[in-house]
């Protein structure tokens, strides 16, 4: 009996948590896209971004190509989906011109209303952050990085929303729920936004609605507003049960011989552009790891010199600081 074909792609994603395939909305979006496009892919769950080969999540491996984008996890998701489109996996290829216009409009709606609500409830709501987000994003990191790295992400989020009122962020999300619910009611048939065939909008939309509906980081305001839209709730349940019913096959371990072969292929003259990209990615990865190391040493030195290291080990540490929570 011949061995089954190995998946062509390998997805590195933040580990599953809260009953969701990943604790990262961006990783969930990429996985949803791959599943909806019926791409042969294996999954590699990472406890944190430092365990990814590029120190960034999500990341996609395809032969000698490694795609993870430059920037935050949303930029990485965009880069991966663009790469998949270029390699024959375009979920939007069947859409008409009118549908493409709707696709652009609703994609903009999700990015401007639902993505901020997801980020706000995960990072700016102190209870959600302390009890859930920090634990998920600090898992597997040594002390004090398991506090410092999530804390720095929270500070960045608080800065991002410093001029935004919490009520307005959630009000915008509720308005998006209404528009999306009406769109689903208006379609004639099929399980997806544009009928019987999925689109990139389905992957993007589900990645946020799944968090708003089922993750413990979701604010009560989001859960309540979403629960008022029966059709939208049914859409999320259907996607969960039909698209994510089975976990991705586990990615096989890569042997040293395979790593050597990939390095040789990447360095061959025929790879041209891929070699250049690999060099940039290597520099980016090296920079990330150096930054993490430097941050860890600086943080350890700070707490040892200030005498506050015992506080972190015995109580909530960074969480007791006044981060200027947004009300």
From TrEMBL:
GO annotation (BP), single: protein transport
Q: Which InterPro entries match?
A: Glutathione-S-Trfase_C_sf (IPR036282), Metaxin_GST (IPR033468), Mito_Protein_Transport_Metaxin (IPR050931), Sam37/metaxin_N (IPR019564)
Enumerate the spans annotated as Metaxin glutathione S-transferase domain: 174-239
Q: Which SUPFAM superfamilies has this protein been placed in?
A: GST C-terminal domain-like (SSF47616)
Q: Which UniProt keywords apply?
A: Membrane, Mitochondrion, Mitochondrion outer membrane, Protein transport, Transport
Localization per Swiss-Prot or TrEMBL: Mitochondrion outer membrane
Q: Does the keyword Protein transport apply?
A: yes
Q: Which domain of life is it from?
A: Eukaryota
Q: Which GO terms describe its cellular component?
A: SAM complex
**UniProt entry tagged with the keyword Mitochondrion:** yes
Annotated Mitochondrial outer membrane transport complex Sam37/metaxin N-terminal domain ranges read 27-154
Q: Which PANTHER family does the record match to this protein?
A: FAILED AXON CONNECTIONS-RELATED, METAXIN RELATED
Identify its protein family: Belongs to the metaxin family.
Query: What's the name of the protein?
Result: Metaxin
The species this protein belongs to is Coccomyxa viridis
């Amino acid at each position: 009996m011949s061995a089954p074909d190995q998946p062509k792609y390998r997805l590195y994603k933040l580990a599953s948590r809260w009953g969701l395939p990943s604790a990262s909305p961006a990783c969930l979006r990429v996985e949803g896209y791959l599943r909806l496009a019926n791409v042969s892919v294996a999954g590699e769950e990472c406890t944190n971004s430092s365990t990814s080969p590029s120190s960034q999540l999500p990341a996609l491996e395809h032969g000698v190509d490694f795609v993870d984008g430059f920037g935050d996890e949303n930029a990485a998701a965009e880069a991966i989906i663009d790469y998949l489109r270029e390699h024959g996996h375009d979920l939007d290829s069947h859409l008409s011109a009118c549908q493409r216009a709707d696709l652009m409009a609703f994609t903009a709606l999700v990015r401007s209303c639902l993505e901020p609500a997801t980020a706000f409830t995960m990072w700016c709501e102190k209870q959600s952050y302390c009890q859930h987000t920090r634990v998920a994003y600090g898992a597997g990191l040594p002390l004090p990085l398991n506090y410092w790295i999530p804390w720095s992400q929270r500070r960045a989020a608080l800065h991002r929303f410093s001029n935004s009122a919490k009520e307005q962020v959630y009000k915008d999300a509720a308005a998006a729920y209404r528009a999306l619910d009406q769109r689903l009611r208006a379609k004639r048939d099929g399980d997806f936004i544009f009928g019987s065939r999925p689109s990139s909008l389905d992957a993007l939309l589900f990645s946020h609605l799944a968090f708003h509906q089922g993750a413990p980081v979701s604010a009560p305001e989001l859960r309540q507003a979403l629960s008022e839209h029966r059709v939208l709730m049914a859409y999320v349940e259907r996607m969960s049960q039909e698209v994510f019913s089975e976990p991705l096959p586990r990615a096989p371990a890569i042997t040293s011989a395979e790593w050597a072969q990939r390095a040789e292929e990447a360095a061959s003259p025929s790879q041209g552009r891929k070699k250049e990209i690999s060099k940039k990615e290597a520099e980016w990865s090296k920079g990330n790891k150096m930054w993490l190391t430097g941050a860890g040493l600086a943080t350890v030195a700070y707490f040892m010199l200030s005498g506050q290291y015992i506080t972190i080990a015995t109580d909530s540490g960074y969480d007791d600081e006044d981060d200027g929570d947004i009300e």
